[in-house]
TrEMBL record:
It holds the Pfam family ABC_tran. Gene3D superfamilies: P-loop containing nucleotide triphosphate hydrolases. One of its GO terms (molecular function) is ATP binding. The keyword NAD does not apply. This is ABC transporter ATP-binding protein. InterPro entries: AAA+_ATPase, ABC_transporter-like_ATP-bd, ABC_Transporter_VariousFunc, P-loop_NTPase. Residues 5-235 form the ABC transporter domain. It comes from the Bacteria.
């Protein structure tokens, strides 16, 4: 397996106003395979945006290393050309027309493919003379995706690109993304709070909780090794050693566990059910703090 992103012991630390330090990402070791759609899942404050900013070269690590498309993120024009990035606010210039966005993209990107850009704009029915500020949220998102795809990147990074869209616009955006992935065979790293969206499009997943990667792998493999167990109340220290407890809940008489194991579960006292990707992600998120406390403004360490 060739990794389009390879991180080893990656960490990013910020300094608060009063001189205190905070790890936004720590001890992150992760490999994202090429030619796959990888979903990045985690609660607010988990470190997803920090990880993405490190991948695209907007931040430099405090510790550890990261390699993207065989090079150091942000290290020169050739490296920047390998990575496309659509940020959460699907950035476009309100005063520029659709056609002017395409001309700007052509000037800024040495690998620009005008046929891809103009073909997508035509299929989407966007008016080339329309200013971006007068487009709908879904149309602006599609324009931003067009700019990212026409750059002909090896890796396309999307940070919550559908967060502000209604369900229909989300579906149209993700359908367009999957068509583009199939047509151009690019790798995608997609962060989203809407896990049901990720279930439809991702074949690889990484769960980031409390600034650390908790589990990563092909979706089918990850789901095959996680199970929900329900049965008579039992304390965690009485479970077999090969059951790694992800989350647990109890009533007076019953216990419910989400566990990770590669071994068969043979105890007849347990009722064993499969998990969806959303179930799995939520189980890992339950281990994070129940509620995030307000965080002072952060300043990037130099």
């Amino acid at each position: 397996m060739t990794a389009v992103v390879a991180a080893r012991g990656l960490g990013k630390q910020y300094r608060r106003r009063l001189g205190q330090k905070k790890w936004a990402l720590r001890d992150c070791s992760l490999e994202i395979p090429e030619s796959r759609v990888t979903g990045l899942v985690g609660p607010n404050g988990a470190g997803k945006t920090t990880l993405i900013d490190l991948v695209v070269g907007l931040l430099a690590p405090t510790v550890g290393s990261i390699e993207v498309c065989g090079g150091v993120p942000g290290a020169g024009a050739a490296q920047l050309a390998k990575v496309g990035f659509v940020a959460q606010d699907t950035p476009t210039y309100a005063g520029l027309t659709v056609a002017e966005h395409l001309r700007l993209g052509a000037r800024l990107n040495p690998r620009w493919d005008d046929a891809i850009a103009r073909g997508r704009i035509e299929r989407l029915g966007l008016d080339p003379g329309q200013k971006a500020g007068r487009l709908s949220g879904g149309q602006r998102a599609q324009l931003a995706l067009t700019l990212g795809l026409a750059k002909r990147p090896e890796l396309l990074v999307l940070d919550e690109p559908v967060a502000s869209l209604d369900p229909l616009a989300r579906r149209e955006f993700l359908s367009a993304l999957m068509e583009a992935v199939a047509e151009h065979e690019i790798s995608v790293l997609l962060s989203s709070h809407v896990i049901s969206d990720l279930e439809r499009v991702c074949d690889h997943v990484a769960v980031l909780v409390d600034s650390q990667i908790r589990v990563a792998g092909d979706v089918d493999d990850v789901l095959a090794t996680h199970h929900r167990l329900s049965g008579p109340r039992r304390e965690p220290d009485t479970l077999p050693a090969d059951l790694h407890v992800v989350s647990a809940s109890h009533t007076d008489r019953q216990s419910t566990y989400v566990v990770r194991t590669t071994a068969p579960i043979l105890d007849p006292a347990w009722s064993v059910t499969a998990l969806s990707l959303e179930d799995l992600a939520l189980a890992y998120m339950e281990r994070a703090a129940a509620a995030a406390s307000p965080r002072p403004e952060l300043e990037v360490l130099r």
